């Protein structure tokens, strides 16, 4: 069958599918309506135990869920009307004479359930052939085992509005015209699906189901975030019974980033996944001790430190290390003896000698964290008493027992204990600044809490994604390993650190998570033009980055004689980029971003709005966004402008400049004010 005829066949099948779904949705809608009517007409006569109400609401729920599934299916098929497939492989199985043809698209499309699909989902086992091999010998893993053979043909399609724009048949991998064309498109306000051009090295990460903990070190723009999200879509597709979107959690740097990545999974036909920042989690856990500074407060402080500050940052950094964790462990151990003040226990007819309590404390319950241990002894006592009296104890009596036992601790206040640790270890004995817990003490405090009390286990999370892995410390990974016991995808770039000194987390991750950490490297950058990538690499003397050959304007640094002239020039340059969907003006800190946004808005016409993004912003959209560098991490823009580069002098500033420069897809311009 020729290509046009096959496309017609698939389009007909799609229209037919959509028609069938519409009929099902309409039928279901009627059923749901009549179920509602039946409920309201009869609920007064339902049985008194609520069984009928329960049955009714369950039936209604399952219909609504079905309706929801149909609606999602319809969206997927409607999307396929535009481009029903993007690839094809003809694969001749070993021992066969004729090849089988497989078309690959964003979802499966078959006439009936058991029939051979017209189009295979990109995540289907056979679709791996498309991403992993050129023409020639190939294999893929099917549920029945490894199947070998030969790819006799491989094609890529550009189909728009259901019409073939072009077909490419080639021997090369997908690093070709279609990739080039995709990369030269404009950036959107959300991360895009890359299913049509996933590269071999990316595919092996996406389809890796053998390693529990996958850690990916990839250069800027190498597709780490994209790969992580496609991997989730892949795992959800292959493991529907054991993994749902609600059980996947992504640790993201901030809400803007969360918004930026939020549309990709729905685009791939999956539900969106939960997202949180580690700081938010820590604040919730430490809420009873007061407010705490966040990561951005800390960066802002460091951006403005002079040479005197080096000592302070070193001290703060030292509090996030393995050595500090060991000191905290030693302190926690010393509390076993120092914190306790055992006495004989009496309550009503219950009694226990001091020596018995201390035996239980140091022997029977020695494995329980120290501050939870008296509660365990309480439960033990209560259990014995209830058995003896053959009667359950009242809650208030139980509480009284716990309270009395807990009074045998000198204190149970973690903040007080942490302060004691600081002064005993000859450190500055405060951890509060301007009424808030200092950022450098937030995670040590949380660590102490989880050492002295049971750490909460997030068992509902069955897969954790940690993006920007370089921004988490040794101590934070130890905490994460205590909270989450699930498979993980950890991604980042040691070069894009937001600290003065680079840390390579891959060196210590196996010490925390064990040998199960599998490391993978991505060295090719897809985001920026070769000129931008080379310019950015020179900023930090990075030599390992390969680029996809795609060219654009050379980044320039414009020298101005005054700040006023700089803003004028910047505003004019921005006006000249009306082709860009997203423009970022990236500044060193929050105050500069605010000032720049105001200056630009004053110089630009009202119909060109300028949006200032702060650490509390929740969304990122098209148009002109102004923000400090640290909020641009993970994002990308058609054009990036960096004003006042003369301010970037320290090693942290240089890191900031690198992060800024690597955000640009097509255009990058810098401005310096000559002093
Ligand atoms: N195989 C691919 N095909 C098409 N585009 C790709 C591919 N891989 C990556 N890209 C594009 O490259 C850009 C960078 O991807 P992504 O943001 O996932 O990279 P990253 O490694 O997380 O970047 P960074 O660390 O710099 O934030 C995105 O526009 C993405 O769509």
Automatic annotation (TrEMBL):
InterPro entries: DNA_helicase_UvrD/REP, P-loop_NTPase, UvrD-like_ATP-bd
SUPFAM superfamilies recorded: P-loop containing nucleoside triphosphate hydrolases (SSF52540)
Gene Ontology terms for molecular function: 3'-5' DNA helicase activity; ATP binding; DNA binding; hydrolase activity
Keywords: ATP-binding, Helicase, Hydrolase, Nucleotide-binding
GO cellular component, one term: cytosol
GO biological process: recombinational repair
Pfam families named in the record: UvrD-helicase
Binding site for ATP: 218-225
Domain UvrD-like helicase ATP-binding: 197-529
Name this protein carries in UniProt: AAA family ATPase
């Amino acid at each position: 069958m020729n290509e046009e005829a096959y496309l017609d066949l698939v389009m007909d099948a799609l229209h037919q599918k959509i028609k069938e779904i519409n009929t099902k949705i309409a039928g279901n809608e009627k059923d749901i309506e009549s179920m509602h009517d039946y409920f309201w007409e009869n609920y007064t006569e339902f049985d008194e135990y609520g069984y009928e109400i329960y049955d009714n609401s369950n039936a209604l729920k399952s219909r609504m869920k079905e309706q929801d599934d149909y609606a999602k299916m319809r969206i997927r098929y409607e999307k396929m009307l535009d481009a029903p497939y993007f690839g094809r492989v003809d694969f001749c199985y070993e021992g066969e004479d004729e090849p089988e043809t497989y078309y690959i698209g964003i979802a499966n499309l078959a006439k009936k359930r058991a029939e051979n699909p017209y189009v295979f989902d990109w995540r289907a086992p056979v679709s791996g052939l498309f991403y992993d091999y050129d023409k020639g010998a190939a294999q893929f893993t099917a549920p029945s085992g490894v199947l070998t053979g030969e790819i006799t043909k491989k094609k890529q399609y550009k189909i728009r509005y259901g019409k073939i724009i072009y077909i490419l048949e080639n021997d090369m991998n997908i690093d070709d015209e279609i990739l080039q064309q995709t990369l030269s498109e404009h950036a959107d306000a959300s991360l895009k699906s890359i299913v049509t051009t996933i590269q071999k090295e990316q595919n092996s990460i996406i389809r890796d189901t053998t390693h529990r903990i996958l850690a990916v070190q990839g250069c800027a723009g190498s597709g780490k975030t994209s790969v992580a999200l496609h991997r989730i879509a892949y795992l959800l597709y292959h493991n529907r019974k054991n993994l749902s979107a609600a059980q996947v959690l992504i640790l993201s740097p901030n809400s803007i980033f969360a918004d930026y990545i939020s549309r990709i999974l729905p685009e791939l036909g999956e539900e969106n996944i939960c997202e949180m920042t580690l700081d938010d989690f820590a604040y919730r856990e430490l809420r009873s001790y007061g407010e705490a500074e966040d990561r951005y407060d800390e960066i802002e402080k460091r951006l403005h430190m002079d040479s005197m500050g080096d000592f302070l940052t070193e001290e703060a950094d030292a509090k996030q290390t393995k050595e500090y964790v060991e000191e905290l462990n030693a302190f926690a151990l010393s509390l076993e003896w120092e914190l306790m003040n055992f006495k004989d226990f009496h309550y009503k007819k219950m009694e226990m000698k001091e020596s018995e309590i201390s035996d239980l404390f140091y022997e029977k319950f020695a494995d329980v964290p120290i501050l939870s241990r008296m509660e365990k002894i309480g439960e033990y006592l209560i259990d014995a008493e209830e058995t003896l009296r053959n009667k359950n104890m009242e809650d208030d009596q139980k509480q009284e027992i716990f309270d009395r036992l807990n009074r045998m601790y000198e204190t149970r206040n973690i903040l007080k204990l942490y302060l004691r640790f600081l002064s005993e270890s000859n450190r500055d004995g405060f951890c509060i600044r301007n009424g808030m817990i200092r950022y450098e003490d937030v995670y040590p405090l949380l660590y102490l809490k989880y050492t002295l009390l049971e750490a909460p286990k997030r068992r509902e999370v069955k897969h954790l994604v940690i993006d920007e892995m370089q921004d988490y410390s040794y101590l934070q990974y130890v905490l994460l390993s205590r909270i989450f016991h699930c498979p993980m995808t950890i991604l980042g770039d040691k070069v894009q650190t937001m600290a003065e000194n680079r840390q390579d987390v891959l060196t210590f991750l196996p010490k925390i998570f064990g040998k199960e950490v599998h490391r993978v490297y991505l060295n090719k950058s897809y985001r920026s033009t070769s000129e931008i990538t080379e310019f950015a690499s020179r900023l930090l003397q990075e030599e390992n980055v390969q680029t996809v050959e795609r060219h654009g304007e050379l980044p320039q640094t414009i020298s101005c004689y005054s700040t006023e002239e700089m803003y004028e020039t910047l505003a004019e340059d921005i006006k000249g980029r009306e082709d860009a969907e997203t423009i970022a003006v990236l500044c060193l800190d929050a105050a500069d971003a605010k000032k720049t946004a105001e200056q630009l808005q004053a110089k630009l016409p009202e119909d060109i709005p300028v949006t200032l993004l702060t650490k509390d912003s929740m969304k990122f959209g098209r148009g002109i966004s102004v923000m400090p560098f640290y909020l641009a991490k993970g994002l990308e823009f058609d054009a990036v402008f960096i004003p006042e580069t003369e301010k970037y002098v320290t090693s942290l500033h240089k890191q900031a400049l690198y992060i800024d420069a690597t955000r640009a897809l097509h255009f990058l311009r810098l401005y310096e004010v000559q002093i």
